[in-house]
Amino acid sequence: MQIKSIIGLMVSCSLFLAGCDDSTDSIADAVIDTVETEVEDVIDNIVAVDPSLFALNSLESIEMVDCTLSNGDASTCYSVTVNGFPADRNELGPFCPESTETTAEDAGKWFDGGVLYDLTGSFVSNLSVFYGDSKWQLYDKDTGLVNITDTQLACEAAVRPDVAAEYNNFCVQCDISYYNEAAGEGVSSTYLIPVTPVLRDTPEDIEHTDVGVAFNGVNLAAAAPTQAILSAYTIAAFDDCIGHVNPVAGYHYHGANHGDGTCPAIDYENDGHGGAFAYAMDGFAIHSMLNQSGEEETDLDECRGHSDDNRGYHYHAAGAGENTFIGCFAGEVAR
After folding, report:
1. Which distant-in-sequence residues (6+ apart) come within 8 Å of 309 by Cβ?
2. Which of 49, 162, 196, 198 is the most buried (most CB within 10 A)?
């Protein structure tokens, strides 16, 4: 894994920001210091975390702290605090279609059975056929307008485990402004990521836990509870990046959609290998599902990981509609 130079950090700053203020400069200095002292080459199949991969304008702070791993060992971790808004985008959405006439260009996504669907007006108007249940009715038959949670109250009532009956048959979307009115900012979160990953003897389940954090500052969330969502006759709309907003995590991803190379952004590696876009909570990098030739790696283990001489052990993301990123944690996570 190449170590980004100070020039690279300055370029990132100029790309993502109109200018770097003092706080951004201090973050950059901290990143430079940790990169110079901690990032090493591939040693025994392990590559140390490279904090310079995080977009500077996604970071609120980054520092090295003492931590305890899931095996009980004392270790050193990066404490990474991100602002929760994707550094490679200016706005979020679209999510729910406004009417039964809305086309894919102005609508978000939904997934089911590993397949990613355009959440168009036509898709919404045919949910009763799609799910074989006549109770589905997300739109007004007279006007064709889709029922959308367009207030904070409605949003939070519809994302509860016990959805109130009045929000059955709604397309659920929440606006990031409900939780942070500052433009280009979301809900900040802090992640502890081991500086040097440690492989486990037995993989650990990822159910109901954060999977990791993308270099653009967005949370890689656990699988969305699709059955609970559908049982309330709701659709929790995602945007084209398979992200949406909730009151707890703010904007977060439930999958990686690299079909156009932008969700979240990746750069293929020099040898055509899939580009890295995130770190899992165990410190191993997560790369795109496909390489530059559009092919998937054939030797992935149950966690969707494999090794090579250039990158050591690392993961490859699952398909865009699979409601997951990786299959399990191959490494120890910080507790």
Report:
1. 42
2. 49
Read off the pLDDT of residues 136-163 as tens digits, 9 standing for 90 and up. 999 999 999 999 999 999 999 998 888 8
How many angstroms separate the CA atoms of 70 and 282, rounded?
Answer: 10
* CA 329 from centroid of its chain's CA atoms: 16
Residue whose C-alpha is closest to residue 203's, from 78, 50, 74, 326: 326
Task: Record the tokens describing residue 35, joined without a space.
Answer: 């990169």
Question: 230: closest CA among 128, 302, 88?
Answer: 128
Question: pTM for this structure?
Answer: 0.88
Reported residue count of the chain is 335
SS3 (DSSP) at 313: strand
Tokens for 114, please give them. 């590993």
Distance, CA of 20 to CA of 118 (rounded, Å): 38
Cis amide bond preceding 94, omega within 30: yes
**What sign does the dihedral 270-274-278-279 (CA atoms) show?**
negative
333 near 324, Cβ under 8 Å? Answer: no
